[in-house]
Amino acid sequence: MAKRVRTAFRLDEPGWRALVAEVAAAAPGWSREDWLNLPVRDRVALYSASIDHRDVVDMLAESRTVHGPSFLVERGTHRIRLGEPVDAPDWMFVAQEHDLVARVAVEVAGSSPVYVAGTSFISGITFDPTADTVAVEATTSRGTVVPEVTMRPDAVADAESGERWADQTEASWWVRLDLDRSEPITLAVTVTVDGVVRRTEITIPALDQRVRSVDVLATDSGVRLTADGVDLRVAALTQEWGSGTSPLSLDAVAQRFGTVATIPSGRYAVTAEVPLDLDDPEALCRSLADRAIDFVDLFVTARGWSPGEADVSLVVRNPIPVADRGRRRQRLLLDEIREHAGPLRERAVVMCFSGTGAGDSVAPIARGLVERGIPVDWIVTDHSVAVPEGVRPVLLHSREWHEAFTHARYLVNNAEFPHYVRFREGQRYLQTWHGTPLKRIGHDIENPRLTAGYTAAMEREAKAWEALLAQNAYAAGVLPRALASGARTIVEGYPRNDALALDGDDGPVRRRTREALGLGDELVVLYAPTWRDSARDARGRRAFVSHLDAARVHERTGATVLVRSHSNAAAGRGLLASPGVVDVTAHPDITALLAAADVLVTDYSSVMFDFAVTERPQILLVPDAAEYRDERGFYLDLHEMPPGPVVTSTDEAIDVLMNGDTSGADRTAFRQRFAPLDDGGATGRVLDAWLGPVSGL
């Protein structure tokens, strides 16, 4: 029953009333022990359901998905504070053994001796080095050693702890083990915080005699890795960081698809055919901040082995000050800025795909705002996102971002802002959305799997929209209902398709994109499938589902195949490139790729409605249409009015490519229905509809 209450936010009113009745009838039969055996959020949510406090149940579900397991535990009393006042019996807030969870992170380098750095704490309780302790035991077949533990502050480790309430800056430590790693080492870490004792065991893998030490050196432009002549690879998002021979130079900026950009933030695994280790294992005695190589737009830190990670990693971070990083500091920063908020300013804040993009309909709208004399701050996750000329890039979660959002009069987004934003009276928010939907979205999905955090954020978003953009009349009939929007709907075409409509078959965007991709006059096929809700890889990430054998298409037709995974499944796509096949998932502009393509192969993606502007051939490859219909559902019948042939296999797609597509009339009809307003002038009409025409123009 507690598990059902966790997802009560998905229930309609009759479903909620039935759940309340069931819980209220059962609750009197539960003992106090029964209640306390549940995790604190479950017991409080269950109690709140029993007395029909849905707002509390929804708040707890949102907190669970947004903030994770973190909550505040008072020292001494061990009373739990969940972040918001909750009307429940006091005894429910007394932390039980299972509520007091240890978090232990370790990093290992060196073969003899072995250095271990770690951060250990009880979640929710601030670590106090004058009263709390960390003890370490290391065991091999030859016995157990108990090294001296040296505590040291590490503000970066605190920022990475995931703690929203407790300050764990003082919870970091290091030890030297006078052992060798010819066999595994069982590391037992015992943390004692405010009388709570927890022991965690971690197995450090053995290193064989082939291990090579990786030396990480700072250069003027990046880092250089050497490993005694061993060929190294760096698993990365960019092609330039994906391969190389030792010494491997990794510039802080690299060319991607003809554009110079800063390396994206993230963790990059350093791999080779032999085991690796850090050349300087004593580096683990220093804090993460002290170990970082400082560049203009990022920090790079070499890391040793951690559970579930490579032997050696490079962690790339944005240059946000440590004082502003992490959930706890973000909470304090938000409180500070909101408390001292001034009047709204004649500026705009825009965001595209949660800060990871700089295109879509947001880009032409942003340029149009600048032309109207309205300064634009473009929010980016890191400096690898190249924003349009004339706008200011602002790092997400930075102090500048919070200041900009709090004071901007104009807001533009194609998805949603972070969960923690609070919209202000007088802000004018244009929601451009990100495509005409074929598949059901939002409230129209019969069995939604959306989290409580996302659901709550979207509800707040929809209430804040002044206007919602739809590409066509059909989308205008779907989006407001599916997104629970009462905003004015603007139907003037999609600004993102202006460039596509104006470019034609030999325009500058098409030529420039093909040149950047190294393409000539050959046939270019763009394969752009969408993601599947239920398809997951072994790590639980959304899997990239491909029904097209791109290599076979190239072999049979001579076409170059561009493969673009949906961003939701990009992390699990693996290696896609091969002779005649180019992975363009990381390309920053889908519109440019559509302009470069001669043929689009897709499935249920909204790109079919955008590519319709070109009236070039499309193929819908949908062998799993029945399963997708049953799982997600469609608004339209794919076979009723398709933009091109509907096929179920690579061979059928190849047959269409080799024998020609005779569905020109279908393509014209499809464009007339779904893209009649995409004529190259949508941006101006949308801005006029949103803000009013500019006087004198």
Give the biggest beta sheet: 7 strands, parallel
Structural domain tally: 4
What proportion strand?
Answer: 15-25%
| Cα shape | globular
Helix content: 25-40%
User: How many angstroms does the end-to-end distance come to?
Assistant: 63 Å
Order of the strands making up the biggest sheet: 24-23-22-25-26-27-28
Number of strand segments: 34
Q: Give the mean pLDDT.
A: 89
Radius of gyration in whole Å, from Cα? 28 Å
Which structural category fits the helices and strands?
Answer: alpha/beta
Uncertain ranges: none
Organism: Aeromicrobium senzhongii
Keywords: Cell membrane, Membrane, Teichoic acid biosynthesis, Transferase
Subcellular location: Cell membrane
Main location: membrane
